[in-house]
Design brief:
With about 725 residues, the protein is α+β, with helices and mostly antiparallel strands. Among the domains are: about 30-120, SH3 Domains (SH3 type barrels); about 245-295 and about 320-415, Phox-like domain (PX Domain, 2-Layer Sandwich), CATH 3.30.1520.10; about 460-575 and about 625-734, no CATH class. Helix content is about 45%, strand content about 10%. Helix 14 (about 530-570) packs antiparallel against helix 17 and helix 19 crosses helix 20. This is WASP-binding domain of Sorting nexin protein. It comes from Lyophyllum shimeji.
Length: about 725
């Protein structure tokens, strides 16, 4: 069953006990047993964390009422609790290792349950550090919204307010429907993302005027000045501690579209290696390399020769290309969980890609480690492609912190930062009159229809592509069988399990040499010394070996090149589910905007804040448009390039074999006797069966109600069902 990530409330751990975890033989990052044992070992004063090696120790928490969102079939050996959607629960401990919680049902049974599978029944509250601005602040904001080129927003106060249940927002029902229970990417939270992201509170209440920060705007543009011209060092440090530093200020240009602060770069996840920790047991470590490409040589040359007009002097010599700057750090899966959790809390207004599913078995097999490496590379690639998430502080820290001691010291600070909530929208700046309400209404309707159609189409494409890969395996088998049959013909040796060759192993007349089927030189002829048949036999033997080579190409192409394309398709699936919170927030904000601009009930402050949220959601739609264009263009080009390379290899082998039938190569074949083919020994035991194709692990939003399928489980079921049935069974889930 797919797991939808949910931001959890994480308290800052004490510095003296942060790394004091008892020795355990379990891997807390990937085995749920470790979540259980870690809770038992730490007692009432301990708790799990998102990192295997970094538990946080909190005081004893009271039981909190909750309700199950999905059906979950727990495994007793992992101390997991089985629940049904809608069951009443009590949360004993929310933050255990790697996304698990300790809960109790109405029967008094206690067990582990993923945090994303339940919701607290009174957990949706306004941000504790916001209050309504004064009337004078509202009046000043009205004036600023009509005269300034940007729409500035403020930051929250540090004094917490009492928690009040939140009753606003769109009601989605207390119990999930059958379709939602099978996931399909839908969030089953009974409050809409308009509420949970903080957009509603921002629209209705705004931000305190005393912390309002307005970026200086040069005349005629929306470019900001350097940060040292706006904040002094003390103010900058204060905002950084509140999570309101320069990296938390986002700008929307005309379009609307996000303004990029830093140029794009590339990240590779590579060289996985198995390591062992005394604290958490065995785990897989990945190398994460960031590549920062300098300015292109062409741009440097153009700038160097610009305005150069003296024809008697030689132009300056172009500088050699500069290799990209590389930064390599080492991260494990639980570190990616930390990154995703922090980003979800700090950037609630953008569509973040989901993390790949956890693995319960076979997590150290070579095939699974490679699949996990590819999933993590695609995940971090999506993050750094986003113009806002790219420069988030936790992202730069994740990609740039090379010291393990520094990582362990600073990561609790990132996890302890408060959720941004409405402050995220308060730190979004955009030009005035940057959108039209009617255009925004039409855009979201078209966007919603388009993403649903894209998701459905990609799902069908994934299924067809899986069948194409299976067909390539069948083609490999056919080519191999053809090669065996041709070799059986010219050597007069029977091909086992293939009676269509016309040879009968039980025929007492079968003796190739005694009956004149082959002469002394191994030629396919009854005459001794026949040079013509010797040339023909050797050329046909070469053709049979080429067919075996082509069969190997078909097999390798399906298992490697086409698997990579199949994996890439998974990353483009379910855009509707990924952007559903954006669409919901956009529609709800439009409703608030129409109320605020209704004749006779105009509220300019609310309308201005609605415009900020709408600029954010429209910028997200534009980001999807850009990435969709890049993704499908790259995918199609890479697929065509792979097919061209494959067929060129096949063609080159066929052409080389064809030349063996033309003089002078054909004539030279008569100069020596025929040597046995390396494939003759396989005629008695032909390689006509192959191991099942590896399939991409299911997408988080795939509707299959199942855990991630490991390589070990796939192979086990394949042995039970047989190779022919396995493809059709598991093909339903890709």
């Amino acid at each position: 069953m797919a797991t939808l990530p949910r931001a959890s409330k994480i308290s800052p751990p004490t510095s003296t006990a942060i790394f004091q975890r008892p020795v355990s033989e379990f891997d807390a990052g990937l085995n749920t047993s470790a979540a259980w044992t870690a809770h038992l070992e730490s007692g009432s004063s301990g708790g799990g964390s998102l990192s295997d090696e970094e538990p946080d120790h909190d005081s004893e928490e009271p039981l909190r009422p909750a309700r199950a969102l999905y059906d979950f079939e727990g495994k007793p050996e992992f101390r997991e609790l089985t629940v049904s959607a809608g069951d009443v629960l009590e949360v004993v401990k929310e933050d255990l290792a790697d996304g698990w919680s300790l809960v109790k049902n109405t029967d008094g049974e206690i067990g582990l349950l993923p945090r994303s599978y339940y919701t607290f029944t009174s957990d949706f509250t306004p941000a504790p550090d916001l209050e309504l601005p004064s009337n004078s602040a509202q009046q000043s904001r009205k004036e600023a919204s009509s005269t300034d080129d940007a729409t500035p927003r403020g930051s929250p106060r540090s004094t917490p307010q009492p928690i009040v249940p939140q009753n606003t927002g769109e009601w989605r029902g207390g119990f999930p429907s059958f379709r939602q229970n099978l996931l399909g990417g839908k969030s089953l939270n009974r409050f809409s993302s308009f509420v949970t992201s903080g957009a509603e509170e921002f629209v209705l209440k705004g931000t305190p005027a005393e912390t309002l920060v307005t970026p200086p705007t040069p005349a005629g543009s929306h470019n900001r000045d350097a940060s040292d011209a706006t904040f002094d060092e003390e103010e900058s440090n204060r905002l950084s501690r509140l999570g309101l530093g320069e990296a938390d200020r986002h700008f929307v240009d005309a379009g609307p579209a996000w303004k990029e602060k830093i140029p794009p770069f590339r990240v590779l996840v590579h060289s996985p290696s198995k390591r062992t920790s005394v604290l958490s047991g065995a785990y897989t470590m990945y190398s994460v390399t960031s590549l920062f490409q300098p300015a292109s040589v062409a741009e440097q040359d153009e700038s160097a020769t610009e305005g150069y007009a003296d024809p008697d002097q030689e132009p300056p010599v172009a500088t050699p290309p500069v290799s990209p700057t590389r930064i390599t750090v080492y991260r494990r899966f639980s570190h990616f969980v930390i990154l995703h959790t922090a980003l979800t809390r700090r950037l609630p207004g953008i569509a973040l890609p989901p993390l790949p599913e956890k693995q319960y078995a076979g997590r150290f097999s070579e095939d699974f480690v490679e699949a996990r490496r590819g999933d993590l590379e695609r995940y971090i690639g999506k993050i750094i492609r986003h113009p806002i998430a790219r420069y988030a502080e936790v992202v730069t820290f994740f990609l740039g912190c090379e010291s393990d001691a520094e990582w362990k010291r600073l990561i609790p600070q990132h996890l302890a930062m408060p959720a941004a909530g409405p402050t995220f929208y308060a730190r979004v700046f955009h030009p005035a009159f940057n959108l039209d309400a009617e255009d925004a209404q039409e855009a979201v309707e078209r966007f919603e229809v388009h993403t649903k159609a894209v998701g459905k189409g990609v799902q069908g494409l994934r299924n067809i592509f899986g069948r194409i890969r299976e067909a390539r395996l069948e083609m490999s088998k056919a080519e191999r069988l053809l090669g065996y049959s041709l070799l059986s013909l010219i050597t007069s040796k029977p091909l086992v399990s293939a009676p269509t060759t016309g040879m009968n192993e039980d025929d007492d007349l079968y003796d190739a040499k005694s009956k004149g089927l082959l002469n002394d030189e191994g030629a396919w002829c009854w005459r001794e010394g026949c040079r013509d048949c010797l040339k023909l036999t050797k050329a046909m033997q070469k053709a049979s070996e080429t067919m075996q080579s082509v069969a190997d190409l078909y097999d390798d192409h399906a298992r490697r090149t086409q698997l990579a394309t199949h994996e890439s398709l998974k990353a483009m699936a379910h855009p509707s589910s990924l952007y559903e919170p954006i669409v919901t927030t956009h529609k709800s904000t439009l409703s608030r905007y129409q109320e605020a601009t209704r004749e006779g009930r105009t509220d300019e402050a609310v309308a201005a804040r609605c415009e900020t949220v709408l600029n954010t959601t429209m910028a997200e739609m534009e980001t999807y448009h850009t990435q969709k264009w890049e993704d499908f263009r790259t995918l199609t080009m890479e697929h065509l390039d792979g097919e061209i390379r494959f067929y060129e290899q096949v063609l080159s082998r066929l052409k080389a074999t064809r030349r063996a039938f033309d003089p002078p190569v054909f004539d030279e074949l008569a100069n020596s006797r025929r040597q046995p083919s390396i494939y003759e020994r396989e005629l008695e035991n032909p390689r006509l069966t192959s191991k099942p194709l590896l399939q991409p692990c299911p997408h988080v939003f795939d509707s299959a109600p199942m855990r991630p399928v490991s390589v070990a489980i796939q192979e086990g079921v394949g042995l039970l069902l047989g190779p022919s049935t396995r493809g059709s069974v598991f093909g339903k889930f890709w």
